[in-house]
Amino acid sequence: MIGVALELFSRRSPDDVSIDEIASAAGISRPLVYHYFPGKLSLYEAALKRAAEDLAGRFVEPREGPLGARLLRVMRRFFDFVDEHGPGFSALMRGGPAVGSTTANALVDSVRQAAYEQILAHLQVAEPPARLELVVRSWISLAESTALIWLDGRRIPRADLEVQLVHDFAALAAVGACHDAELAALLREVLKGEPGQGPFGDLATRLVVLAS
Amino acid sequence: MIGVALELFSRRSPDDVSIDEIASAAGISRPLVYHYFPGKLSLYEAALKRAAEDLAGRFVEPREGPLGARLLRVMRRFFDFVDEHGPGFSALMRGGPAVGSTTANALVDSVRQAAYEQILAHLQVAEPPARLELVVRSWISLAESTALIWLDGRRIPRADLEVQLVHDFAALAAVGACHDAELAALLREVLKGEPGQGPFGDLATRLVVLAS
């Protein structure tokens, strides 16, 4: 039933989905739904919990190969998720039915934290300096807003945005490194093994072309 | 009274501010507060409206001189605002007492829209291509999240972050331009008159140093 509810809450704005509809789609009676979930909010929160676990799971990526390529694969899975859950994702992130719900806010934060921890693990940084934390956390919010803007009309191909977000990460990290010697040293170390053909090398090539 | 309420809602988490306290600070009776505002939410919304107008007003900047320097002045005024309204700003943006309030959501969106329109006006772009809209709107969300992360411990001097956000804008615009010829042409035109000593020139110098 949670799966059916998640499907419905994802495909339309959750405000427009009724308990009756969920019961009917799940092929169970309305009283039975209420037996497990005292109201729509608790069912919504249960569906959101499943979605949050699903999304956090998509951030997991083997720690092998170039970092830029790893991040690009994660961005593809992130946009898969956003694509599958579009209206529900927009409604939640733009301040929808469950805002004010402590549970919903905590779930959104848990997904952000999972993304943050995955990135630090791939960078092999256990104790991030303040600047690195800022770069990673603010880039995560940039990825959210990019996805929301994409959903609003889909005027840019998502494949472009997946690459662009990898490039945005590199660009924001480079700006941070311009302002902080510790971050600069850390990034030099991290990027030592990156090949010229990956997304990071691709960005460098594009910037040189742009500047010329 | 709205001014007093805004002061109290700004300095502590709005959840912790009572109508009694506002009445007492404003030197008026509790029934008189209720005469004008049927509940705490309506008073909070009135205070938020004043704060939103204040912040949107700080985005207004004469259209003279280098763009980077203009944006830096706006960032200083933005951080002044964030500094003055710290706990209230955090509570609102992290999903605080007024979330679920359509009025509060609309006010936050109106401030974002004001920032967006100011930036387009300074770039002298009436009909932005989709990529430019994405760069500007996603940078606005980056500025919000940077301010929120700064408020959480203030581990990086705000003056550094004001400059960094100007550099972040340039970096995200450059990445966008790498992916979109129309945006690239537009930015070349806009940046023609920028001096080497402004924040944008400074970033270019720093990046060259970093890469070497």
From TrEMBL, chains A, B:
InterPro entries, sorted: DesT_TetR_C, DNA-bd_HTH_TetR-type_CS, Homeodomain-like_sf, HTH-type_TetR-like_transc_reg, HTH_TetR
Gene3D superfamilies: Tetracycline Repressor, domain 2
Annotated HTH tetR-type domain residues: 1-55
UniProt KW Transcription regulation keyword: yes
Natural source organism: Streptomyces similanensis
Keywords attached to this entry: DNA-binding, Transcription, Transcription regulation
DNA-binding region per Swiss-Prot/TrEMBL record: 18-37
SUPFAM superfamilies: Homeodomain-like
Pfam families: TetR_C_46, TetR_N
UniProt keyword Transcription regulation present: yes
UniProt name for this protein: TetR/AcrR family transcriptional regulator
